[in-house]
Amino acid sequence: MPSQPLSADRVRGALVGAVIGDAFGSPLEGAPASTVAALVDRRAQGTGPWGYTDDATMFLALAESIRDCPQFHP
């Protein structure tokens, strides 16, 4: 199957999804498996702003770098 270029909407969706996933999951990081289900339920019910971590910051910086210099020069 030939590869097709990614549309801007798909790229934006991947970026937004990654940052939202990071923000949602950051309080769960390192939690024991036995408590994850309860933590997910509490996180889904919670209000207030979600902060994202350095992981999302690095991901966004990488995306900006690829946007600004789309060619790889070893």
Residue share in helices?
55-70%
The end-to-end distance, rounded to whole angstroms, is 28 Å
pLDDT < 50 stretches: none
Average per-residue pLDDT, rounded, comes to 86
* Cα gyration radius (Å): 16 Å
**Overall body shape:** elongated
Decide which structural class fits the backbone. mainly alpha
Query: Total strand count, please?
Result: 0
Number of helix segments? 3
H/E element order: HHH
Oligomer: single chain
The major beta sheet can be summarized as: none
Share of residues in strands: under 5%
The gist of it:
By secondary structure, the chain is mainly alpha-helical.
Describe the structure.
The protein is an all-alpha fold and 74 residues long. It has a domain at 21-43 and 51-69. Helix content is 62%, strand content 0%. The chain contains 3 helices and no strands. It has helices at residues 8-25, 33-45, 54-68. The longest helix is centred in the N-terminal third of the chain and has 18 residues, at 8-25. The radius of gyration is 16 Å and the shape is elongated. The chain starts with 7 loop residues before the first helix and ends in a 6-residue tail after the last helix.
